Amino acid sequence: MKRFALLLAALAAATAIAEGRELPPAPGPPHEFRLPAKETLRLDNGLEITFIDYGSVPKVTLLAVVRTGNIDEGTDTWLPDVTVEMMKEGTTTRSSYDIAKAAAGMGGSLGLNVGAEQTTASLSVLSDRAVAAVELLADVLRNPHFPESELPRVRENRFRLGPRGVHARQMRHRRQLVVALDSIDDGERLGACAAAGPVGHRAEIGRKTA
Q1: pLDDT, tens digit, for every residue of 160-206?
Q2: What is the CA angle 86-87-89, rounded to 5?
Q3: What Cα–Cα distance (Å) separates residue 115 from each residue in 1, 26, 96, 120, 136?
Q4: What are the beta bridge partners of residue 113?
Q5: Which of 22, 63, 200, 201 is the most exposed, fewest CB within 10 Å of its CB?
């Protein structure tokens, strides 16, 4: 009985403290949100360019998007990845060092990446270097050198992705296979998925040449 009385007293004290607390202020009105204005134009060669003006930092971010990626590699496993890595090795007029030095001199760095459905090239620089940055990005995209001497090293780098990188790529390939082979019985589907394992990947990428 004594313990019960002490419990009731503690609950009463806690209730009194809670009732005496000041309630938090009510939320204010939401801030107005506006998407930045954009301007799109198409060049005579068919290239579509979109300009988006936002922020106050004097920088320009260039982003070139090509709508092709790993989904288009077919039986040439990792060919898009190897191609992008080889593009980082220089152009017909610039070495990889020259590209990195030029980008750094503009206050940025070049990025080349391949995804499932698109390949991107990006460069963020100080706004007064925008014209030179466009020229550099165009050179990388239009005049890749693909030096054969660098291909073995690039291939080995793909092998060194580690279990996490290989596993992620395997899982994506297997999901694509499962969708594509949905009408085939389970035994055949599992066999096809197993064919996309790491041994198959290494054999495919090992055959890539410049």
Answers
A1: 764 445 445 555 555 554 555 454 444 443 444 444 444 444 445 45
A2: 70
A3: 70, 45, 22, 8, 22
A4: 120
A5: 22
Residue with tokens 């922020």: 55
State the pLDDT at residue 154.
Answer: 87
Helices and strands, counts by H and E, the chain? 8, 5
Cα distance between residue 85 and residue 78, in whole Å? 11
Contacts made by residues 164-169, CB under 8 angstroms, sequence distance 24+: 166/198, 166/201, 169/78, 169/201
Side chain identity at 206, as an amino acid letter? G
pLDDT confidence band for 33 (50 / 70 / 90): confident
Separation of alpha carbons 12 and 104, rounded Å: 67
Residue 89 token pair? 């090795």
How does pLDDT run across 91-123, given as a tens digit for each residue? 999 999 999 999 999 988 899 999 989 999 999
**pLDDT value, residue 16:** 55
Cα 76-173-157 angle, rounded to 5 deg = 60
Residues 6+ apart with CB under 8 A from 154: 82, 85, 86, 89
Q: Which domains does the chain have, with CATH numbers?
A: 38-206 (3.30.830.10)
Report the C-alpha gap between 184 and 182 in whole angstroms. Answer: 6
